[in-house]
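Chapter summary example.
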Amino acid sequence: MQKSLITILENSLFPSALTIFAKFIGIAITISIFNLPYTVSEYTSSVLNGTLTVTQEHSVIISTYSDLIMFLIIALGFSIQLARAIFFHDSHLSPKFITKLADLNLLNLIRDTYEIYHKAAVWLAFLWVSVVLVLINFALGTTLLWVAIVAVLGTVALTIGLIQDAYQELVNIRSKPRQYINF
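The structure predicted for these 183 residues follows.
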């Protein structure tokens, strides 16, 4: 149990930093694309020496699109983990595909069940956290409904994809248990 907890904590550092970074990048991209006016107020008594100030109308645009960008970046990260689970899981690969990967010097793409599902669980948690953030912003009136709908439906679809892969793994274990025994 301790090894799993440490692995989950190690695997959560990048997605957590990426979530925060993606939100800030989303704000910067939105302000740049829509050419929105803003001011930066400086405070000397604050740890963060500045505050970004925009109008209420522009704050909805900034929040909406920065939430969308944040969600899409985290969804992309999770999608990569899901693709690894589906296409590069050591228990799913045929000898012919492994030979092709070896010829292309891409054997490092192959992952075991332990690594795949730990990383996927962490990324899935951050995907759902991003959805909760989008829904909170929608409830506060700072994000438009369509972004909340996209985030919820996208996350549900990706979650179903991971559940289906995990279910297929369980079916494989039940049908061929000797392949999964580690000596």
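To summarize the output: Residues 2-180 form one domain.
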